[in-house]
Task: inverse folding
């Protein structure tokens, strides 16, 4: 599965991707599935068209079963356990930080819940007008054994299998 997290401008480099994830952007034509949102709501696109909308959280099949969650609900371990119980392999969270302490706390929560549940997580974190793309895998699935795939404002492209 080819995933692009970040700006749709980066999509121009690719003929197509399986999943595009971004903070409230347009639903691109060259992504099979898209998840765009904020901490208050999200929109799931399919082949360039709006497919589903959600508030707070929802389980969706976007080539892989995923839990999409926004706001403070994303910080609770129960969200990750609900995802796991429903067969999800991926958690996509949209959050806002209002201070540097919040920023680090939210990142730490996503990392910790990813390690506890062994799910993959993509956390889009809006802080001081910039969106940070944080991607975490279980420790053993990362080369450096930290669980951190990416943290920062740059768009991130990744590929992984369905297992």
Result:
């Amino acid at each position: 599965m080819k995933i692009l997290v970040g700006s749709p401008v980066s999509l121009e480099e690719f003929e197509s991707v399986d999943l595009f994830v971004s903070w409230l952007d347009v639903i691109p034509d060259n992504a099979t599935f898209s998840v765009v949102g904020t901490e208050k709501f999200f929109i799931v696109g399919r082949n360039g068209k709006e497919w589903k909308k959600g508030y707070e959280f929802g389980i969706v099949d976007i080539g892989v079963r995923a839990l999409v969650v926004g706001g403070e609900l994303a910080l609770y371990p129960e969200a990750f356990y609900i995802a796991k119980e429903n067969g999800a392999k991926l958690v996509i969270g949209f959050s806002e930080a209002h201070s540097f302490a919040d920023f680090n706390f939210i990142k730490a929560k996503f990392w910790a819940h990813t390690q506890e549940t062994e799910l993959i997580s993509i956390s889009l974190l809006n802080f001081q007008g910039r969106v940070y793309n944080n991607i975490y895998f279980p420790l053993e699935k990362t080369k450096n054994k930290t669980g951190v795939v990416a943290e920062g404002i740059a768009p991130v492209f990744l590929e992984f299998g369905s297992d």
